[in-house]
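BUG: 3D viewer hangs when loading the predicted structure for this chain

Environment: internal workstation, default settings.
Expected: structure renders.
Actual: progress bar stalls at 90%.

Input used:
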Amino acid sequence: MSAMQDIAPRPTRRPSFGLAAYRLATRAVGPAIPFLLSTRLKRGKEDPARLPERMGIAARARPEGALVWFHAASIGEALSILPLIDGLLSARADLHVLVTTGTVTSSRLMAERLPPRAFHQFVPLDHPDYCARFLDHWRPDIGVWVESEFWPNLIVAADARGMPLALINARITEASFRGWRRFPATIADLVGRFSAILAQDGASAQRLRTLGAAHVATPGNLKHDALPLGADEAEVAALRRQIGGRALWLATNTHEGEEVAAAEVHIALRRERGDLLTLIVPRHPARGDAIAGELARRGLDVARRSLGQTITPQTQVYLADTLGELGLFYRLADIVFIGGTLSGTGGHNPYEAARLHCALIAGPSSFNFTEAFADFETADAMIRIADADGLARAVSSLLADKGERERRAEAAFRIASTTSGALGRTLDALLGLLPNSSGAPARRAQNA
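Structure tokens produced before the viewer hung:
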């Protein structure tokens, strides 16, 4: 069934008891919000110049013409929609695109990556007044939510204004599913407000249907169809000169505890490979100070990219505590450990490394990409390990056998380079929800 066949009008509805109670509760805590924002500001979690956006106060005028609003929780989700944004803007010359996220790092990345006619704002905090102010200013023609972050007041307020809503690349983990089942009427009310729900995998689609979603399609995972990550070729060449002929491996998108595991791997393997270089790219670069301190306490010589430090013959670990440079490091390393899989976080996008011919290693936690990890493992394109000892054995084996590295990397590349069609199907669905350039209502599926 195509994505368009699962688009249907939905009646405007009164909030369920749970959503009404949530609305009252968020209004009651309104006086505490300035304190919350001040605390987040001190912790570096807010941009002081753009704090009004968090209260729904726009930083710019609404552009003329049709406006598509995407909301993505953070970096991964925001990056996954860039090809979709390009497709929409190419299809409709009258369109503009607004992207909202909630993190400082994602806002900076969007400022660099968004094309002309697309721009970023911070999502307002989920207070009824802030949401109303945001929506009344921007008046989007459609609202597109990415993956799994639900802000009830914002969804209800958008629906109340008659705005078609789509949930794309939708993902519901087993843990989230169990949590939402404790509030069946509330989640059924929320998902029922979407005109289109496009799940990224079959398991998420079934969970969404069980939670009350009536119109769910499974066009595939947008992250599968993304383009290879870019890189500054001059930076690639500069780092290759610094590395020379040293053996190296990369731990990417790491979370707390996984940098220690990478350190243990390095310490275990340097006895057999005295020239070994370990590259670490943490998921959250702001943890750079803490990670560097932890590695130094284990006696490792660490160079930090955020400080402009170079790789010398004495450097044992290169800590890439910067943002948006994964394409650079996937070009340098052909052995990659996918972070979030030892920390219980559920894993991160394996396609990015696979597209750049990397042999993949992952721990047991993969609920964010269950079907994707299974595909890589079935094709013998990914080694699954249980702990740091297993990681050391996998890295050692791949370092010792170039043929094995190349075979696994080629298998991973074949999976990642086969277009799933998710991008095209999702693009068609969103274009079907938009009013045409003359302002006529969106077309609806004949058999929705």
